[in-house]
Design a protein that fits this description.
mainly alpha, 0% strand
Length: 78
């Protein structure tokens, strides 16, 4: 977990990571997904020095609710 995160972002990271592990994800994967999610939320809130266009223009991960999790029926990768 990066040191430059606020306490709020550290709590958010731990919450996401713990939730993923409870759902059966291994620790390394849970840490990566949690860090990416927190970094994206930081970019959307203007807390990051750099932000990709998709981070700032996309709907938030909380509102999206796993729409692009690629686990639903009929989803395929080109």
């Amino acid at each position: 977990m990066p040191r430059f995160w606020s306490r709020k972002r550290e709590r958010q990271y731990e919450h996401i990571k713990d939730g993923l592990q409870e759902r059966g994800r291994d620790e390394d994967t849970a840490e990566e997904i949690a860090a990416r999610t927190v970094n994206k939320e930081r970019a959307r809130a203007g807390e990051a020095r750099q932000a990709s266009r998709t981070s700032t223009n996309d709907i938030s991960s909380g509102r999206r609710g796993g729409q692009r999790s690629h686990k639903g029926p009929g989803r395929s990768h080109p």
